[in-house]
Specification:
single chain; alpha/beta; D-Maltodextrin-Binding Protein, domain 2; 10-stranded mixed beta sheet; two-stranded parallel sheet; 10 helices; globular
C-alpha cells in the first residue's frame, strides 16, 4: 500500500512538473544561446524545467499560434499573416529583443575570394552570377546554399541582401544552419550564409560592402560597433496570458548574467555590459 502511494505521488509530481515546464521553440539561430540560457537558469532555479527546440522562426510562430510552446524564438519580426491568425484566436503577444546577430556570408576555405559587394551577393543568390571568376575568383562553378523557407534567416537575407528578389531556382535549401556549415566546408565552389555565432574554421567568412568601397568583415568587434552592414535583432515572442510564467526566464536572459552569456556565445548583447 505504501509503495503504491509513493508511486502515485511520484507520478502526480512528474505530471505537475511536465504541466509547468516551459517550452521554447523556433529559430535555429537563437537555439544555441537559448539552450545555454535555459541550462544556466535551471541550475539557479531549483525545480524549474525548460525545453528548447529549433526548426525555424516559422515553426516557432506556428507553435505559439497553436499553443504548443510558451516562447517562440525568431530571427525575424512576426509576419502580418501570423498576427491575423493570433488575432483570430483572440491572443495578444509581446515581442522582446534579446540579442543582435551578424549574418555572415561563408565560402569554402580554399576559395581565394575574400570580399563581395551586396550587388554581387544578389547576383550570386539570384543566379545571375554563376562562376567565381565573375567576382575575381577561379574558374569554378558557384554552388549556392540557403536555409529553407520556414527560416527567419532565409527571410532576412532575402529582404536585406537580395532586396526581396527571388532566390535562384537551383538553390540548395538546407534544414538547419549546421547543414550549411557542413556543405560549404565540403564543397569547393560553395557559398552560404549563417549567424556569426556559427562561423568556425571549417568555413571562410567574407567581408561585405554595401557601397562598393568599404568592405567590413563579420566579427564581434565590427558587429558590436554596427559597422558590419548585415545586423539583425533576435526575438522572443510570448502570449500575454503566459506573462507570469515566462517573465522570470526572460528577465534572466536580459539580466547582466544572461547578457554575458549572449556575448560569450558570439551574439551581441542588447544591454551594455
Amino acid at each position: 500500500m505504501k509503495k503504491e502511494f509513493i508511486l502515485l505521488f511520484v507520478s502526480l509530481l512528474l505530471s505537475v512538473t511536465s504541466l509547468h515546464a516551459q517550452k521554447i521553440k523556433g529559430s535555429d539561430t537563437v537555439l544555441p544561446v537559448s539552450q545555454l540560457e535555459a541550462e544556466s537558469y535551471m541550475n539557479k532555479k531549483t525545480g524549474s524545467k525548460i525545453t528548447v527546440t529549433g526548426g525555424g522562426s516559422g515553426v516557432g510562430f506556428s507553435s505559439l499560434i497553436d499553443g504548443t510552446c510558451d516562447i517562440a524564438m525568431a530571427s525575424r519580426p512576426i509576419k502580418f499573416g501570423e498576427k491575423i491568425k493570433l488575432k483570430a484566436k483572440k491572443q495578444n503577444i509581446t515581442e522582446v529583443t534579446v540579442a543582435y546577430d551578424a549574418l555572415a556570408v561563408i565560402i569554402n576555405p580554399s576559395n581565394l575570394v575574400s570580399k563581395l559587394t551586396r550587388e554581387q551577393l544578389e547576383g550570386i543568390f539570384t543566379g545571375k552570377i554563376t562562376n567565381w571568376k565573375q567576382v575575381g575568383g577561379k574558374d569554378l562553378k558557384i554552388v549556392v546554399y540557403s536555409r529553407e523557407t520556414s527560416s527567419g534567416t532565409y527571410e532576412f537575407f532575402k529582404e536585406h541582401v537580395l532586396k526581396n528578389k527571388n532566390y535562384m531556382k537551383s538553390v540548395l535549401s538546407m534544414p538547419a544552419t549546421g547543414a550549411i556549415i557542413q556543405s560549404v566546408s565540403q564543397t569547393k565552389g560553395a557559398i552560404g550564409y549563417v549567424g556569426l555565432a556559427y562561423v568556425s574554421k571549417k568555413v571562410k567568412a567574407v567581408a561585405v560592402s554595401y557601397d562598393g568601397k568599404n568592405y567590413v568583415a563579420p566579427n564581434m568587434a565590427n558587429a558590436s560597433k554596427k559597422t558590419y552592414p548585415v545586423i539583425r535583432p533576435l526575438f522572443y515572442y510570448y502570449n500575454n496570458k503566459d506573462k507570469n510564467k515566462v517573465s522570470p526566464f526572460i528577465q534572466y536572459v536580459l539580466s547582466p548574467e544572461g547578457q554575458n552569456l549572449i556575448k560569450k556565445s558570439g551574439y551581441i548583447p542588447v544591454r551594455l555590459m
